[in-house]
Write a structure and sequence with these properties.
Blueprint (H helix, E strand, L loop, with lengths): L16 H9 L8 H11 L20 H11 L4 E2 L6 E5 L4 E5 L2 E5 L1 H17 L19
Antiparallel strand pairs: 1-2, 2-3, 3-4
Length: 145
């Protein structure tokens, strides 16, 4: 099948000089912070701008209920521990994290705890089961569920 279409360039070959000069002239030409210059330029063009006295701060993401409960436990000065019946365990207090094997243990510094959390998060995602497929839903890209 062949479709004959005559294409036109999106812009005239020769730029409209007055329009270009008006656009460039609307840009601020005094030394100022970049955010201020962008805001002034947008206002000149009639585009919406953010008020100067409002700063952008990311919203705090709500924590899962289990994490909120553990935060309250730590705030009350109580430790969070794995079951004592396990030969290998952990204890988290407001002062730190302690891993234990039998009667011996090791206190982790903050950097080690951050690395452990990253490794555990990666493991949890890696071992996550794929969601169940609904009856009649097509198979994945490789032809597998």
């Amino acid at each position: 099948m062949r479709l004959d279409v005559e294409e036109h360039p999106p812009f005239p070959e020769k730029p409209h000089r007055e329009l270009m000069q008006a656009f460039i002239g609307a840009a601020p030409n005094t030394p100022q912070p970049l955010d201020t210059a962008i805001g002034a330029f947008r206002a000149t063009l009639g585009l919406p701008t953010r008020p100067a006295n409002v700063s952008w701060v990311p919203r705090a993401r709500p924590q899962p209920p289990r994490v909120e409960a553990m935060l309250r436990t730590l705030a009350h000065g109580s430790p969070i521990s794995s079951p004592q019946r396990l030969p290998v365990g952990w204890t988290v207090t407001d002062e730190g994290v302690r891993l234990r094997v039998g009667r011996t243990g090791e206190i982790l510094d903050r950097h080690s705890v951050v690395e452990l959390q990253a490794a555990l998060s990666a493991w949890l995602r890696f071992t996550e089961k794929p969601p169940e497929r609904a009856v009649g839903e097509p198979l994945g890209e490789q032809g597998r569920p």
